[in-house]
Amino acid sequence: MVLPIVGLLIGLIIGIYFPVSIPFAYAKFMSVALLASLDSVFGGLRAGIEEKFDNTVFISGFFTNALLAAALVYIGDHLGIDLYYVALLAFGLRVFQNLAIIRRFILIK
Predict the structure, then answer these.
(1) Per-residue pLDDT tens over the stretch 36-53
(2) What is the distance between the alpha carbons of residues 11 and 35, in angstroms, rounded to a whole number?
(3) How far is CA 3 from CA 8, 21, 52, 63, 87, in A?
(4) pTM to 2 decimal places
(5) Is the separation of the CB atoms in 13 and 5 below 8 Å?
(6) For the packed helices 55-79 and 84-108, what is the interaxial angle rounded to 10 degrees?
(7) HSE-up of residue 78 (Cα within 13 Å, Cβ side)
(8) Alpha helices, H only, the chain
(9) Local structure of residue 23 (DSSP, 8 states)
């Protein structure tokens, strides 16, 4: 469980000290892909706490969620529909749900 937290902290430090500018045209894609990736990270933390963590499931879910979310935004963009709202809502709800379960587990323990 320590490894994902260390990776998240290293990522935050790198992001703070080496900021990257994303073009506005890709902002929707990156925001949804980032939220999908965060969903996978919190899902991995939850699985680690529940002692059900599988590295293959985590890695495949991480990239599959990010690619699926970006594809959803791309398709919605070409159809003229803001489908990224759907992805943001779905992944946002899952992030908060996983975070609530992690919080409950820590408080009970």
Answers:
(1) 888 998 999 899 898 898
(2) 15
(3) 9, 28, 15, 18, 27
(4) 0.75
(5) no
(6) 150
(7) 5
(8) 2-17, 27-49, 55-79, 84-108
(9) P
